[in-house]
């Protein structure tokens, strides 16, 4: 029974069906499955399959967004039943699109994938002033700061943010990404990591917070 | 290609003006060498260096047709790029439909801050655009007239935003991408309506003196939409724009950002006179996949901004060798890009002055 419900949770996410996901989450609670288990072994498993489908070029951005909506619908049902302390030791991430750029689709995807990957994410939105990243990173005690931009014209702002973070003595690691960003550019401006896309960003975030600087595999842009 | 024209493939000799070379290239004729252009619009053509030299600066040049035209002329003169083009951003249409635009600064292009729509279902709220009245459309028309009065031999590019990208400037992109699946009929209606209006705006620009159309649809990339959505939702309206311009005898180039490999065949069916591609796409590979396509591109704008100049020359030269019909930047050129780098790109095809 438990296995069946967990499979249904995962399938609902893959099927992008929010109604199915919240119904399955309700059944999980009724049959005594721990909410944490329903999330990790049910909904998150579905999201992992969505990532695989994305990398296999079967799912694209619309599918990821709707799958994440389904996952969130399930989490909303489960959240009130989660033990309170389980959010305490989450790694904290501050994310935003740098000043001058209002393209936030990539950033939103990374946020969704990080949240679903178990990070506590503070989203500053788009067109974010350089100093704001420093301020919030310090305030929340961020482990990781993620900077995104889609435009060549605002890339240089990432360098400014990283410099300001270092100058302010913020110890957080920094990950960058977005259309024009390459691994080479990332390392030139002093970023600790680079993610080519949203699913890769989660992998890079995990390895960054575990060990030293990484550049993601599969980074192909010159 | 469906629009094979008389004379296609025949070579043309004698000395050509920049305009003749580009238009002949787009009609499939063999010419002495590839033209080099930077269309404007999303693939913006402006450099801070030239703004400072001439005093025609961003953000004023986004709204004042005289400064817009003067900056375009000065860019052409400084860089050797073989076209004129306006505007310097892709927010003109969105603003004309009520989007709230922030003008940016000397190096930051304008961007849309607040959208007029909350869902694709609200599309009937948009009224038909009047190019002579709405937002900055009259300024771009006037700029085009001024450029035409100034230059007969240099091609003038009219820049249009493709329907999908325009939609993501009229409502939140995340909402739009969700609704691609949830509301396909409303998406189709919205995109069709946008295309119709873009066609009328494009006609007005040609009436003002533009020689060709570049439709930039960066958000329609296959990487984001996937091949099915591209073929069924984005491509039909993009194709309708191309056909409408062809019926009026106006050559049309389509630019798509990102990795277009998953949408090669749908791209070919657009019947554009050239396809402009991003730096991530291999020109040789695309040429093999679509032998009849004329490719425009694809010098990395990151390289153009950062240099060094020798590397720009080398990459531009190799891009021509790889077989582009038109040499161009792969995307929008950053305003901090040194003029020397743009000149080095142009130098890959232009005889030394």
Primary descriptors:
heterodimer; A: 222 residues; alpha/beta; Rossmann fold; 5-stranded parallel sheet; 9 helices; B: 353 residues; TIM Barrel; two-stranded antiparallel ribbon
CATH-defined topology of chain B: TIM Barrel
> What integer is the average pLDDT of chain A?
85
The average pLDDT of chain B is 93
Which pair has the most extensive contact?
A-B, 32 and 36 residues
The domain count of chain B comes to 1
What fraction strand of chain B? 5-15%
Query: Any low-confidence stretches of chain B, pLDDT <50, length ≥5?
Result: none
CATH architecture of chain B: Alpha-Beta Barrel
Measured between the Cα atoms of the first and last residue of chain A, the distance is: 50 Å
Level of helix content of chain A?
40-55%
Question: Rough shape of chain B?
Answer: globular
The total of helices of chain B stands at 14
Q: What report would you give on this structure?
A:
The complex is a heterodimer of chains A (about 220) and B (about 350). The termini of chain A are far apart. Chain A has 9 helices and 5 strands. A 5-stranded parallel sheet of chain A has the order 2-1-3-4-5, sandwiched between helices. In chain A, helix 8 links the parallel strand 4 (about 175) and strand 5. Chain A is an alpha/beta fold. Chain A folds into 2 domains: about 1-85, Orthogonal Bundle (Methyltransferase, Methionine Synthase (B12-binding Domains), Chain A, domain 1), CATH 1.10.1240; about 90-210, Cobalamin-binding domain (Rossmann fold). Chain B has about 350 residues and is α/β, with parallel strands linked by helices. Chain B has one domain (about 20-345): TIM Barrel (Alpha-Beta Barrel). Chain B has helices at about 20-25, 50-55, 65-80, 90-95, 135-150, 165-170, 175-180, 185-205, 220-245, 265-270, 285-290, 300-305, 310-320, 340-345, and strands spanning about 85, 100, 110-115, 155-160, 210-215, 250-255, 275, 295-300, 325-330. In chain B, the strands form 2 sheets. Chain B has a 7-stranded parallel sheet, with helices on both faces. In chain B, strands 2-3 form a two-stranded antiparallel sheet. The longest helix of chain B has 26 residues, at about 220-245. The model of chain B has no long low-confidence stretch (mean pLDDT about 95). The interface of A and B includes residues 100 and 220 of A.
């Amino acid at each position: 029974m438990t296995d069946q419900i967990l499979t249904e949770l995962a399938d609902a996410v893959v099927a992008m069906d929010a109604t199915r996901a919240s119904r399955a989450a309700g059944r999980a609670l009724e049959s005594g499955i721990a909410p944490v288990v329903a999330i990790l072994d049910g909904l998150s498993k579905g999201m992992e399959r969505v990532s695989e489908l994305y990398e296999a070029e079967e799912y694209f951005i619309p599918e990821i967004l709707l799958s994440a909506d389904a996952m969130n619908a399930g989490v909303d049902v489960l959240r009130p039943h989660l033990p309170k302390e389980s959010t305490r030791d989450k790694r904290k991430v501050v994310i935003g699109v740098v000043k001058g750029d209002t393209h936030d689709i990539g950033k939103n995807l990374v946020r969704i994938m990080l949240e679903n990957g178990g990070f506590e994410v503070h989203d500053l939105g788009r067109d974010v002033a350089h100093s704001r990243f420093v301020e919030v990173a310090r305030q929340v005690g961020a482990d990781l700061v993620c900077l995104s931009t889609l435009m060549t014209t605002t890339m240089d702002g990432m360098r400014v943010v990283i410099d300001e973070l270092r100058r302010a003595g913020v110890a957080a690691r920094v990950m960058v990404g977005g259309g024009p960003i390459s691994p080479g550019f990332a390392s030139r401006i002093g970023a600790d990591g680079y993610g080519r896309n949203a699913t890769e960003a989660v992998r890079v975030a995990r390895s960054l917070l575990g060990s030293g600087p990484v550049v993601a595999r599969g980074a192909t842009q010159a | 290609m469906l629009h094979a024209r008389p004379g296609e493939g025949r070579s043309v000799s004698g000395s050509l003006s920049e305009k003749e070379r580009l238009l002949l290239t787009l009609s499939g004729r063999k010419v002495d060498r590839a033209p080099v252009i930077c269309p404007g619009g999303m693939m913006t053509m402006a450099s801070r260096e030239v703004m400072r030299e001439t005093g025609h600066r961003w953000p004023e040049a986004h709204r004042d047709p005289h400064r817009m035209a003067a900056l375009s002329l000065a860019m052409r003169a400084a860089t050797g790029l073989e076209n004129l083009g306006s505007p310097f951003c892709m927010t003109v249409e969105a603003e004309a439909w009520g989007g709230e635009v922030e003008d940016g600064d000397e190096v930051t292009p304008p961007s849309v801050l607040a959208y007029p729509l909350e869902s694709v279902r609200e599309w009937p709220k948009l009224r038909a655009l009047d190019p002579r009245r709405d937002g900055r459309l009259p300024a771009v028309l006037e700029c085009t007239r001024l450029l035409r009065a100034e230059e007969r031999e240099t091609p003038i590019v009219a820049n249009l935003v493709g329907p999908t990208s325009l939609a993501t400037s009229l409502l939140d992109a995340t909402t739009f991408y969700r609704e691609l699946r949830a509301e396909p009929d409303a998406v189709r209606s919205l995109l069709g309506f946008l295309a119709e209006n873009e066609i009328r705006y494009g006609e007005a620009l040609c009436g003002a003196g533009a020689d060709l159309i570049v439709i930039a649809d960066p958000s329609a990339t296959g990487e984001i939409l996937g091949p099915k959505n591209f073929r069924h939702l984005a491509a039909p309206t993009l194709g309708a724009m191309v056909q409408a311009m062809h019926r009026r005898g106006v050559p049309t180039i389509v630019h798509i950002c990102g990795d277009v490999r998953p949408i090669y065949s749908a791209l070919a069916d657009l019947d554009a006179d050239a396809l402009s591609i991003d730096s991530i796409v291999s020109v040789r590979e695309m040429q093999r996949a679509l032998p009849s396509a004329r490719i425009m591109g694809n010098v990395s704008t990151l390289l153009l901004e950062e240099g060094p100049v020798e590397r720009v020359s080398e990459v531009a030269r190799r891009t021509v060798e790889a077989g582009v019909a038109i040499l161009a930047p792969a995307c929008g050129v950053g305003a901090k890009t040194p003029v020397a780098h743009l000149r080095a790109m142009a130098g890959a095809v232009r005889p030394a002055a």
